[in-house]
Design a protein that fits this description.
Blueprint: H1 5-25, H2 27-41, H3 65-70, H4 72-75, H5 82-95, E1 101-102, E2 105-109, E3 119-122, H6 124-139, E4 146-152, H7 157-160, E5 167-173, H8 182-188, E6 192-195, H9 197-208, E7 218-221, H10 228-238, E8 242-248, E9 251-256, E10 262-264, E11 269-275, E12 280-287, E13 295-299, E14 302-307, E15 317-324, E16 329-330, E17 336-337, H11 339-349, E18 355-362, E19 365-371, H12 376-389, E20 396-399, E21 414-416
Parallel strand pairs: 4-5, 4-6, 6-7, 7-8, 18-21, 19-20
Antiparallel strand pairs: 1-2, 2-3, 8-9, 9-10, 10-15, 11-12, 12-13, 12-14, 14-15, 16-17, 18-19
């Protein structure tokens, strides 16, 4: 008998709570048990992984987006072909009707900021777990009715599943100019606003100009890197702390705790660390709750800063997501500069710089956008001093008058183009 979706969510809430307690009591034992169950119940059904279901995790290959997309037909446990899933996802994207599924499975389309666009699959059971995690770890339980304004490039049954009598979910399409949403936002008066930092900063500007008049109790940043300066501006404008959620098409990986750090959800994830230096690492993720499209040793190209947290959780703590590995600037001689150093140089050069973008065009050339434009020279000089301190001479910094950003996609403030 098929369980009603809301009952699935309630059962998932109890299971998530139990698994989290089990992890905090004994992390290693809990993860070993989850891994054995994942191999037996999920990997055994995957054509790609079925023969390895008795293997140790180290025996599985590390994969990235290229391999994950290439092996789509053989990874998923439902026999869904990539071309069929892409067709459903693309039709939904074009029509802006995101209700169709394939064989009862929700299909989503990635934004493609790191290359070719990918497809992800989520079953009804997995949707229920996602909703339960959102309620438990992000929105929090409340008997008070709450209105959520969710800014997305593409809606999905995955997101609208949060809708209930206590939560009114309103989708705002990122492909529509943000100015066209102001009237609806003012009428809605959302209790919670969820969006990427570049969008949240547009709302900040509109609020300061009087075009927007909202007073959310919670602001949640997703999708893009949230810089400290944007975080301060959003908090100052709406008078609430900004929470962050680390979520990708590959799954929900972490969220902010009460102490302001991220914790990676190790009660359902195995996280291996590829260290870049003493504190920075790339996570290699195995999601033991995914059943339709198993995620095994998927190497994210995000740069995370490991830290210690006083909140008491044994889950990995992260102080910030610095950016992507393709945001690291590479120069001749194998030298590199992490994006956080670039950000600090530009923002630290003058207190009035409110927006900027740096794109590395080649090993000797950067383009720089700064707002206000009158401070371009100040920011460029700060970058030059940074480069000279690193013995990087003759780096050309070109002036550009506009940001490079396609509406509806993630804004990348620091980006190294690869040729």
């Amino acid at each position: 008998m098929k369980l009603p979706f809301k009952l699935r969510v309630i059962l998932a809430l109890f299971q998530l709570g139990r698994e989290r307690r089990q992890f905090e009591r004994n992390p290693l034992y809990h993860q070993q048990r989850m891994w054995r169950r994942f191999r037996r119940n999920t990997l055994a059904k995957s054509p790609l992984y079925g023969d390895q279901r008795e293997s140790c995790i180290e025996d599985f290959p590390i994969q990235g987006k290229l391999e994950f997309t290439r092996d789509f037909d053989f990874i998923n446990t439902r026999g869904i072909r990539f071309d069929d899933a892409m067709h459903v996802a693309q039709e939904a994207e074009d029509s802006r009707d995101f209700t169709p599924t394939i064989d009862g499975v929700t299909v989503g389309l990635s934004s493609g900021t790191s290359g070719n666009r990918g497809v992800f699959l989520v079953s009804e059971e997995e949707r229920a777990f996602w909703v339960a995690m959102v309620l438990q770890r992000i929105l929090g339980f409340s008997l008070k009715k709450r209105k959520v304004a969710f800014f997305l490039r593409a809606n999905s049954k995955l997101y609208t599943s949060v809708q209930s009598r206590l939560i009114r979910f309103s989708f705002f399409d990122l492909l529509i100019p943000v100015e066209q949403h102001f009237t609806e936002l003012n009428d809605l008066q959302p209790d919670i606003v969820v969006g990427q930092p570049s969008l949240l900063m547009m709302l900040v500007d509109a609020q300061r100009e009087g075009k927007l008049r909202i007073a959310p109790h919670k602001v949640i940043s997703v999708a893009e890197v949230l810089s400290s300066e944007d975080q301060k501006a959003i908090k100052s404008c709406f008078q609430v702390s900004v929470q962050q959620v680390y979520q990708c098409n590959e799954g929900m990986f972490g969220q902010t705790c009460a102490h302001g750090n991220f914790h990676l959800n190790e009660d359902g994830l195995l996280i291996e660390k590829d260290w870049l230096d003493e504190t920075r690492f790339q996570p290699i993720v195995t999601d033991m709750r995914r059943k339709i499209q198993p995620v095994v040793r998927y190497k994210m190209n995000d740069i995370l800063h490991a830290t210690k947290c006083d909140c008491g959780s044994k889950m990995i703590a992260v102080s910030q997501i610095e950016g992507r590995t393709d945001d690291v600037l590479h120069f001749d001689g194998g030298r590199r500069i992490f994006p956080d150093f670039i950000r600090r140089a530009v923002i630290g050069s003058h207190k009035d710089i409110s927006n900027y973008q740096i794109i590395q065009e080649d090993s000797k050339t950067l383009s720089l956008y700064v707002d206000p434009k009158s401070l371009w020279d100040v920011a460029a000089q700060a970058l030059t001093r940074l480069f000279e301190a690193q013995q990087l001479l003759d780096i050309e910094i070109r002036r550009v008058e506009n940001k490079t950003h396609i509406q509806g996609t993630k804004f990348r403030r620091i980006h190294a183009q690869r040729h």
